[in-house]
Amino acid sequence: MPSRGSKPKYDLVIEKDVEIPMRDGAVLRGDVFRPKSAQRAPVIMNLGAYQKDKIWLPPDEVDERANPHMNWETANPLWWVPRGYALVRVDSRGSGKSPGLNNPWSPSEARDFYDAIEWVARAPWCNGRVGTLGISYYAMNQWLVANLRPPSLKAMIPWEGAADMYRDFAYHGGLFSFGFAVNWYHAQVAHHRLGKPRSTSPDGFSSPWLLEYLRENLDSEWYFGRQARWSEIDIPFLSAGNWSGMGLHLRGNCEAFTRAASRHKWLRIDTGTHYGPFYSEEGRQDQLRFFDYWLKGVETALLKEPRIKLRIRKGGKDNYEWRHERNWPLKRTRWTRFYLNPVKVPARQDADGTLTILAPRKATSLTYWSNGLAQPGLGTPTWMSGMIGKSSPRTGISFETAPLDRNTEITGPVALVLWVASGTEDMDIYATIRNIDADGNDVFEQGQQGQPVPVAKGWLRASHRKLDPNLTLPYRPYHAHTERLWLKPGEPVRVEVEIWPTCMVFAKGHRIRLDIQPRDGIGSAPYTHYSADYNCATNTVFAGGSRASYLLLPLIADR
C-alpha cells in the first residue's frame, strides 16, 4: 500500500542515553532517533516505565518487522525517521536508566513529561513541534500531560489509553481490578528490581503504589492528577480504542471524544490485539496523515473527512469491515429496551429467562447465591469463572433473546437498569453480553492479549450506585464513587450498570445473551476483580410490573 503522507528519504542518527533535566534538578535519560538532515524535524515522543532499551520482537502476524530498535508499545524508528520525524523515548523517573522513585500515571510523572516535552522542543534538531504517540501506558499518560497544556505539545495519538485511573483502571463500578492491577505492578517490580535496571535505580519501584490504590478506594482528590480533565484538554488528538479493550482502555478513548474540549478530535475503534492495529500499515498511515497535518503542516483532506472510523464486528476473528461515521453515539441509533423476563425457555436449559421488547406486566423475581459459589445442594464450588474462553459451572442468572429474525447491529454505549435486593449490605453485579450461535455456542472475539472474549462487559457494586447527575446520560450512567450507600437486607433498590461501549452485528438466528453474576464471568481474564467475599447470602433481581429491569441496547438502523 503506497504511503499517502510523507515519503521515506532520510538516514537515521541515534543518540543514546541523552540527559533530560527536570525542574527539580533530577535527570531522566532518553534515546533520540532523528533524520540525518540539516532541517529541523518535528518530534514524536513517549515517556514511561517499560524501559527504552528493551528490544521487542513482534509476532509474525504484525506488519512491522523485527529490528534492533523495536520497543514494546512504541513507534518504530525505521519507519518514522525516514519520513522526516524524530522519535524520542524517555525512561520515566525510577525506571530503566532514569534514577529516582517511580510513580506511574501520577501528577509527578505528568510534570516530568511536561518538562521532557519542553526540553525536546528546544533541541537544535527539533522544529519546536512535539506530538505524543504510543499504546497503553504510553497513551494513558498522554491524557495526564495534556491536562497541563505544555506549549510545545501540538497533537497526540493516545492509542488505547485509559483516562481515569479510578473508573478505567483500578475500580470498575467500584470493584477493584485485582487481576490486572496487582499482576501488572508486580511484573514491573520484578523487571526493575531483578533485571538490569537495578544498577541505575535499585529502589525505583519501592513505593507503596499498589497500597495507595487500595487505600483510595473511593474517588477522591488523590485522583485529581490521575484523571483526564476534559475541559482542559484542547489540543488536536486521534483517540484510538479497541472493542476488546473492556476492562482497561476503551472507556477512556470514547469519553475523550465526547467530552474533551478539543475542537479537532478523531475517534478510531479497532478490534483484535492492541499491538496489531497500531503496527499495521493501515494504522500507521492513519497516524502519519494525522501528524503530517498537525506537526508538519502538510495539507491533506483530514479536516473534511468523517471524524469517526469504526471496525464493525460481525462475529468471530477477522469477520469485520471498516465504516466511517460522523457522530458518537451514532446519530441513527435506536435506543431499545430489552426487558428481563424470568420465563424458562424449554429449548435453552441454561437460560433463566428471556429478553423481550415488551415489559412483563406481572412482577416477578429471580434469586441466586451471592458469593460466587454454586447454590447449596445444587452444585460444586466454582473457582474458574474468570478462565479465558472457558465455560465454567454457572453462577448467577442469564437471559436470552429469541433467535434473531435478521442481522442485528448494536454499536455504542450500553446500560443495564436493574431492580435488586440482597440478603446482605452489598451486592456485586457482573454483567456480560454474549453472542450465541444457532447451535448454542459462544461466538468469541479476539481480545487485547490475544484471548477469546465475549461481546461486552460492565460492573457495579450496589453500594456505589449513586450517580453524578451532571454527567449521567440515559445510555451511559456515570457513578460518583464518593460514598457508599449500604443496602438494607431484602429491600429493593434501583441500580444502573455502565456496560462499556461495544459493537457487534448479531447474525440472523443468533441470540443476544445477558449474564448477571456475583463474580467474573466468561472471558474476564486478565481483567478480573476482587469480589466481596463477605457478601455471602442471596441476591434477587426483580422484573416486570413497577420494578421492570431492562438492558438498553444501541440498535443501529440501516443507512
Overall tally of structural domains: 2
**What is the end-to-end distance?**
29 Å
Low-confidence segments, given as residue ranges, are: 373-393
Mean pLDDT over the full residue set = 92
Summarize the amount of helix as a percent range: 10-25%
Walk me through this protein's architecture:
- The protein is an alpha/beta fold and 559 residues long.
- It has 2 domains: 12-305, Rossmann fold (3-Layer(aba) Sandwich), CATH 3.40.50; 333-556, Sandwich (Jelly Rolls), CATH 2.60.120.260.
- The chain is 16% helix and 30% strand.
- The protein contains 9 helices and 25 strands.
- It has helices spanning 77-80, 107-121, 137-147, 165-170, 178-193, 209-215, 250-259, 276-279, 281-296, and strands spanning 12-21, 27-35, 41-48, 86-91, 126-135, 153-159, 171-172, 175-176, 237-242, 265-270, 308-313, 320-325, 333-341, 353-356, 364-369, 397-400, 408-422, 428-436, 445-446, 452-453, 456-461, 493-506, 511-517, 538-543, 550-556.
- Strands 13, 14, 15, 16, 17, 18, 21, 22, 23, 24 and 25 form an 11-stranded mixed beta sheet that branches. It has a 10-stranded mixed beta sheet with strand order 1-2-4-3-5-6-9-10-11-12, with helices on both faces. A two-stranded antiparallel ribbon has the order 7-8.
- Strand 7 (171-172) and strand 8 form a beta hairpin.
- Helix 2 (107-121) packs across helix 3 (137-147).
